[in-house]
Structures are given as C-alpha cells and as structure tokens.
Amino acid sequence: MHKVKVLFFATLRDYVGTKSVELEIPFGITIGGLTDLLMATYPRLENVKDMMMVAINREYAANEEVIPEGAEIAFFPPVSGG
Amino acid sequence: MDFPTIISITESELDLDTLLARITLPTTGASAIFTGMVRGQTSRGDAHETVYLDYEAYQPMAETKMHQVADEIRKKWPTIEGIVIAQRIGRLYPGTPTTLIACTSAHRNTGVFEAARYGIDRLKEIVPVWKKEIGLHGEEWVEGHYHPKPGE
To answer: A82 lies in a domain?
Structure first.
C-alpha cells in the first residue's frame, strides 16, 4: 500500500463533503480502480460520474493510468473559468 | 530579448494598465486585450439575473495550464511578444472583470487578435477554475463542457 492525496473541487467537493483526503491505496491501482473505491465510500459520486475529470500530479489523466507513489490526484467537473 | 509571459491567479483587482505595461517592449506596436466580466443580466437562453459569482481554482494546476496556453500561443503565432493570462478568483459582482488575456506584437496584423481569442478559448477548456452562480432564487455551479484528453 502507499499513500496518496486526493482533492475534490466544485460540484464534486459538494457531493463528497470534503476538499481533500489522504488514502492508502494498493500498488498498481489505476485511476479507474481508485474511482471505484471512492464510489463505494461516497455513493453520491455516482450521480456525477459522467462529469468527473481527473488529474494526476496536475496533468489530465486517463482511467487506465496507474497511480504513482505519493501522487496528488484531483477530481473535478469540466472547468468553467473565464 | 526575452518575451514576457505573465500568469496570474489572484483575489485582487485586475489592473489592466500595469499588466499591459509589463508586456509592452521597445518593439511593441500593438496589443489585443480580452476581458470577461460578471454579467448581471442574461437574456440569451435561460434569462436570469446574477447577484454574484464565487470563483475557485486548483491553483498549482491552473498555473501550469495557463503557462501551457501561453506556450501554445507562441507556437501558433511566433510573432507574439508579450502575453498576459490572468484569472481573478473569489466573490465577484456584476460589472467586475474576472479574466484578462492580452497579447502584444510589433504590428496589429501579426496575429494578436487571433492569439488573444485563442487564449480565452483555451483557458475556458483546460484551466481548472470553476464558478458558482448565486442568483435571486438560489445557487448553482456553472457547468463546463469540454473534456480534455489525457496529457492535454
């Protein structure tokens, strides 16, 4: 297992109820795997799963990507700045 | 001479004069500036009034992505001299400028207009900033539509 930081922004933070959590995750787990774990912990995320963007260490990432040790993962909806 | 790139995410007022001076070089003869502001009354689509907007950013990633937008501008329009990409965050009321994109170059016909347009379009696609709209009858997060590709 290794420790990662998971951040949530905007609508997703409202659904989860927290800005960030530290999690122990298995080595080799992908973003998709982490998403499944989060859905189990925060079932309300099911409602917004189609709008979940994800970044690993501040770069947009794919579901198949394996999470590196000590990574900062962020989940957020499509951006709406400007 | 190094061309200046100014990236800013701030809770302070956007100061156009100061920002523009910082991207005006001895060789500069033109600039194109885009600013977006909080619209108090919306008539297009679902007509409504906005009391204020609350902006938030994933600041370190937003700064990285703003630098990326500036790099993309320089690749597409190598004649661009200075670039400002600024986003104000926090609680912002109607009439307040929220974002500022400015590009400078030697002459007006070297892509400055297109470059500034590209800058705001890309900011709205890939820079992680969100706004919640507070209206007369409640509040809701404004939803973006673009889904960036991995690594984009």
So the answer is: no
